[in-house]
Every structure is written in C-alpha cells, then in structure tokens.
Amino acid sequence: MQTLYERHGGFVTVRKVVSDFYDRILDSDILARHFQHTDMRVLVDHQTRFVSFLLGGPASYSDDHLERVHRRLGITLPEFDEMVLTMCETLEDHGFAATEVASVESELRRREGIIVTAR
C-alpha cells in the first residue's frame, strides 16, 4: 500500500506544497509576524521533511523536538487554527482528497498541545 507521500509524488510535490503553504502564511495578518526574522529557505527545508513525515515519507520527527522548537514562539490557539486551515487549503489546492487532508489535519491537531505555547 502506498503512503500519501508516495501517492502524491514524494519530495518534489511536498516541497511545492510547503513552499505554497509558506507563501500563504507570509500573506496572513495573523501568522506573518512569526516569520519576520526567519530564514525561509531553512524553514521550508525543515517543514518539507516534517510534512513528508506526516504523509508517511522517509523522515522522522519526535514530539519532543517539536515541543522544543515551538516552546519559545508564543503561538496562540487562533494562530494554530489558522495554520491548520491554511495547510488544509493548500493540500486541497494541490489535489489531495478530502480524506487525505483530514488525515494530515488530525496529525497536526494531535500536536496542538505542544505547538500552542501561549494560552
């Protein structure tokens, strides 16, 4: 059985999805502030690996790592929700089926407690 990563073309497709996702994030009045001093090339590379992991690709991320990275960022629940919505819309626009998008959304929402650090 193919993973979502394999079904959608692997690294090349995921990289396009992640690049498009961050173009949308940088246009967001809610989210762009988090990326003012970020090397976006490095971030897109890291996120391509993370999204590959979520899609069953050859990458691994631990929740401990995600918690360490996000701890200092002060991400709020509305910002998290906006990020998840943006990712879902991006996946849909890149041809992912509703059930596939729901699977990725579920994986992201499962990590809400370690990404949302401002309550």
Describe it for me?
The protein is an all-alpha fold. The protein has a single domain (4-115), classed as Globin-like (Orthogonal Bundle), CATH 1.10.490. 65% of the residues lie in helices and 0% in strands. It contains 7 helices and no strands. It has helices at 4-7, 11-26, 40-54, 63-70, 77-93, 98-110, 112-115. Helix 2 crosses helix 3, helix 2 crosses helix 5 and helix 5 packs antiparallel against helix 6 (98-110). The mean pLDDT is 94.
Keywords:
single chain; 119 residues; mainly alpha; Globin-like; 0% strand; globular
Radius of gyration computed on alpha carbons: 14 Å
Mass-distribution shape:
globular
The top-level CATH class is Mainly Alpha
Assign the CATH superfamily. Globins
Tell me the total number of β-strands: 0
SSE layout:
Layout: H1 4-7, H2 11-26, H3 40-54, H4 63-70, H5 77-93, H6 98-110, H7 112-115
Explain briefly what this protein structure is:
By secondary structure, the chain is mainly alpha-helical. It contains seven helices and no strands.
